[in-house]
Amino acid sequence: MKQIANVHIIATGGTIAGRADSAAATVGYKAGELTVGQLIASVPGLDKLANLSGEQLCNIDSKDMKEAIWLQLAQRVEEAAERNDVDGIVITHGTDTLEETAYFLQLTVKTDKPIVLTGAMRPATAISADGPMNIWQSVQVAADESAKRRGVLVVMNGQINGAETVTKINVNALEAFQSPGSGAEGVIVDGKIFWQSQDITDALSANKMKFSIKNLTELPKVRIIYGYVGGDDGLFVKAALQDGARGLVYAACGNGSVPEKLAGLLKETVASGVPVAIATRCGGGVVVLSEIMTATNGFIAAGTLNPQKAKILLQLALTKTNNVKEIQKIF
Ligand SMILES: NC(=O)C[C@H](N)C(=O)O
């Protein structure tokens, strides 16, 4: 008899575990209601795909995800990945902050086993709920040898995206997640996985790059400042600094376009020892800064990372060093 893989499911809540009063409701529901056991039971034949175990870490709407929960989750994922009787891990999660959790795990969890995050856009009680198929496909990816050494993956709506590139691009559609620029790593069609990217990492060197969170009880405070017309008075920069921010991410309107009025304050911020990463609100492209902005002013270019992911990398970089040049290298 063919051996099937062992997949451990960690449930955290979200719409995938959401319940509404009516089967037609896709908005007025409560996220984080079903338990991990109920989620597993809702997918017919899942036990034939893999030997399953499950745990409930929390049961929340992911708008309420906390960095303290990330620290617990990363530890639980790593512990599960170290077990000989676990071949892959699936994490069920709300979609609103799923990309952030995925990227945090990507930067912190040392393993070469598949780690897959999934969620749903329709609550579990809806007609044509997308959760069960997403769970099925996630377990399938987590159980597959070919998904090893690909970093943390997000499986939704038949697409497999990488944690670093994926972002939620639609608030209603089932195809809510995409990787602008790079595209999906793979797709799942008719129960088969088709990889579109051959981007397999060397697990040893990838793991060496990971940040250790073992002794952390909280992450350094980093705030995102959003760029927009009329938002150049520095109010939020000053408030963030007063509140003890150890780093800032500026979500510029374009490629590194810091308004003249704000540039002075941000330069002073860097000079005072608080690093500033420049990302973009554009949703695509690579932020590349001029020599003057990096070498002279000490700004950090976020590259392809969106502001919310640049924030996570800056937080973790700050656990190692405050040195702007070092942090520029990490980015
Ligand atoms: N589709 C979803 O999962 C949205 C929900 N608000 C959540 O992030 O938990």
TrEMBL record:
Domain L-asparaginase N-terminal: 6-198
Statement: the UniProt record of this protein carries the keyword Acyltransferase: no
Domain named Asparaginase/glutaminase C-terminal: residues: 221-331
Reaction catalysed by this enzyme: L-asparagine + H2O = L-aspartate + NH4(+)
EC number: 3.5.1.1
One example GO MF annotation: asparaginase activity
Protein family according to the UniProt entry: Belongs to the asparaginase 1 family.
Name of protein: asparaginase
Gene source species: Succiniclasticum ruminis DSM 9236
